[in-house]
Amino acid sequence: MADPAARVAELEQLVSDLRHDIRGALASTRLTTDRMRADADPRMQKFAATIDRATERILNRLEETRSIVPPRR
To answer: How many structural domains does the chain have?
Structure first.
């Protein structure tokens, strides 16, 4: 059986990596919604607002994980 401390370290690294990867993917989403908000079409602006809200919820959830698994230094 694996060492419990090693297993915890592996899980912490996994969470840290996932947090990093998700934030990176959401950066692209934010750039796209910035362009959508600049569009004169009100539908595009509405779509951008919907995506922004969803993105913000995800970022908030990621932030919550920091209290459980702090960022690795």
So the answer is: 1
Residue 12 lies in a domain: yes
pLDDT tens digits, 31-58: 999 999 999 999 999 999 999 999 999 9
Per residue, what are the HEC states of the chain?
CCCHHHHHHHHHHHHHHHHHHHHHHHHHHHHHHHHHHHCCCHHHHHHHHHHHHHHHHHHHHHHHHCCCCCCCC
Question: What contacts 37, CB < 8 A, 6 or more positions away?
Answer: 44, 45, 48, 49
**Model pTM?**
0.79
Residue 11 domain boundaries = 4-63
